[in-house]
Design brief:
- 26% of the residues lie in helices and 28% in strands.
- It is α+β, with helices and mostly antiparallel strands.
- It has one domain.
Length: 188
């Protein structure tokens, strides 16, 4: 009986510490916590479970923009976003409103993705553009390697913790490993 109660408590604790990341259909998730995300696993998935802690995602916005008789396919530059799930159980990625070519051009120069918690409040994030060699064909781009290089670079959204190849894609964490200057950026 004591064993059953302990097991039940552990299972409930694990369930309570998970955070659900909601993925809208116009977001292509490329990397999660330093690991490539298979498009076949995520395509059509509406949510992913994450451990409580600090996470890093690389994503692109994909939109079909009406343009006369032939719609234009818009694909943003990859964005790298660092955020914490410490005080939330649900995180929703809110993509920008891109309804025409002008919106797409504006997003290209001002890339901003908003993350919201279960109460609709904006979560603090650190974001940056993950630069890709535009001469490479899309199927030759190794986003996991580019993210690893970015994380070793010390740039503003870099998380060196996710450069280790053995870290699972949903490993959670806390702020303790962040530099103090980044801690203020995340918590504010």
């Amino acid at each position: 009986m004591k064993y059953c109660l302990t097991l039940a408590f552990l299972l409930l604790s694990a369930a309570a510490s998970a955070t659900t990341l909601h993925l809208p259909g116009d977001i292509a998730l490329l990397v999660l916590d330093g690991k490539r995300v298979s498009s076949s696993l995520v395509r059509g998935a509406e949510q992913i479970e994450l451990n409580t802690g600090v996470h890093q995602i690389v994503l692109q916005v994909e939109k079909s923009i009406p343009r006369g008789d032939i719609p234009l396919h818009y694909l943003s530059a990859p964005l790298i976003i660092t955020f914490s799930t410490e005080a939330t159980r649900h995180v929703t990625i809110q993509p920008p409103a891109i309804n025409n070519v002008e919106d797409a051009k504006f997003f290209d120069t001002h890339p901003l993705i908003t993350l919201r918690n279960e109460h609709g409040q904006v979560l603090p994030v650190i974001s940056d553009v993950l630069h890709v060699d535009s001469a490479l064909p899309a199927n030759k781009i190794n986003y996991e390697q580019l993210t690893r290089e970015y994380n070793l670079s010390g740039q503003k959204a870099a998380l060196p913790r996710f450069t280790q190849s053995s870290a699972p894609a949903t490993q959670g964490g806390r702020f303790s490993w962040l530099r103090p200057d980044r801690l203020r950026q995340v918590v504010q």
